[in-house]
Design brief:
Layout (H helix, E strand, L loop, with lengths): L1 H17 L3 H5 L1 H40 L3 H29 L10 E7 L4 H21 L2 E9 L5 E9 L3 H5 L4 E7 L10 E11 L25
Antiparallel strand pairs: 1-3, 1-5, 2-3, 4-5
Helix pairs in contact: 1-3, 3-4
Length: about 230
């Protein structure tokens, strides 16, 4: 684990030097990418520092216990040793998870589409409930939500609704919402009190990146024609 943390530290130092270079700052695409990597590496570094501190505490405690000249210090060292050893497994698991290669799209904004599925009017109402749920969640995360298009249901809710979400780690968080969502409940439209099953489909797509097109006019062929018939 220490070796992996050292590799991360080496890359962190490299990126730290790169993001202050004028040519990197001038290249916005590369700067944004490196700045994102810098933040990710810094998070691993912070966990790594805690991990190294715990290892040092364990080594010091073991040294005091081995010496055994001061009973009070030995008892304190044993308590510290047990506490540090208890924290190590969970911290190692966190660091391993952070070292897993990330989906390059995780940091992008997202486009979310909710479509009512089986269940008639109740499915549209359920789709509306999902939209309100995501709206509240985005607000709690400090993300910006922009409505793109919608088609309202006849009894409320939406047959279809599309919206964009922008912020930090949006796609990486919301991508797990993609799929079919089902609910079993007594619908607002049900007069007999029967439980119905309704469904809605959620699609989550990463926002497409803008890119520059370098068009060589030598590769362009322009043709002009005139009409030969009436009109």
């Amino acid at each position: 684990m220490i070796e992996k943390i050292q590799i991360v530290k080496q890359r962190f130092d490299e990126v730290n030097d790169l993001i202050i270079q004028p040519e990197i700052i001038a290249d916005q695409k590369r700067y944004i990418k490196l700045n994102k990597e810098y933040k990710d590496l810094r998070a691993v570094m912070e966990k790594g520092e805690v991990y190294e501190t715990l290892l040092n505490n364990i080594a010091e405690a073991e040294e005091i216990i081995a010496d055994g000249s001061d009973e009070e210090m030995v008892e304190m060292a044993k308590m510290e040793l047990d506490e540090a050893r208890a924290k190590i497994p969970e911290l190692e698991e966190e660091i391993r998870f952070m070292l897993i290669p990330r989906d390059p799209d995780d940091g992008k904004d997202a486009v979310v589409e909710i479509r009512a599925g089986t269940g008639g009017d109740e499915a549209s109402i359920f789709a509306g409930d999902l939209y309100r749920m995501y709206t509240k969640y985005c607000e709690s995360k400090g993300w910006k939500l922009s409505l793109v298009d919608f088609n309202e249901g006849t009894s409320g809710g939406f047959k279809e609704i599309i919206f964009e979400v922008s912020g930090e780690e949006v796609y990486g968080t919301l991508k797990f919402e993609a799929g079919v969502h089902r609910v079993q409940r007594v619908p607002q439209t049900e007069t007999q009190g029967r439980v119905h099953t309704s469904a809605a489909t959620v699609m989550v797509l990463p926002e497409a990146e803008e890119f520059d097109v370098d068009l060589d006019m030598q590769d362009v062929r322009i043709e002009r024609t005139t009409s030969t018939g009436p009109g």
